[in-house]
Amino acid sequence: MRYYLLDYGRDVIEYAHGISERIRKDGHHLIEYFTDADGLMCLEEISEDEFLDHFKKIKEHYKKTK
């Protein structure tokens, strides 16, 4: 199992969705970011620790905004 981070802008949504679908179909995990940078698409393989840290940071941020 692999872990990926996909960051993309509105001009490449269709391409990003295709990549996302394939990654998930292959049984891998994915974090997706939709940004306001037109034409941007970055795919990065990350470690399991980086993947899990992402969710810890979101949980911490959510607690601070309540």
Structural features, described:
By secondary structure, the chain is an alpha+beta fold. Helices cover 47% and strands 27% of the residues. The protein has 2 helices and 3 strands, in the order βαββα. The chain has helices at 13-25, 48-65; strands spanning 3-8, 29-34, 41-46. Strands 2-1-3 form a 3-stranded mixed sheet. Strand 1 (3-8), helix 1 and strand 2 (29-34) form a beta-alpha-beta unit. The longest helix is centred in the C-terminal third of the chain and has 18 residues, at 48-65. The radius of gyration is 13 Å and the shape is flat. The protein starts with a strand and ends with a helix. 3% of the residues are buried.
Keywords, separated by commas or semicolons:
single chain; 66 residues; alpha+beta; three-stranded mixed sheet; 2 helices
Structural class: alpha+beta
**Rg estimate, integer Å:** 13 Å
Helix count from the secondary structure assignment: 2
Which series of helices and strands comes N to C?
EHEEH
Share of helical residues: 40-55%
The geometry reads as flat
Strand order of the largest sheet: 2-1-3
Mean pLDDT: 91
Query: Unreliable runs, pLDDT <50, ≥5 residues?
Result: none
Major sheet details: 3 strands, mixed
Q: Give the beta-strand count.
A: 3
Outline of the structure:
The protein is α+β, with helices and mostly antiparallel strands and 66 residues long. It has two helices and three strands. It has a three-stranded mixed beta sheet.
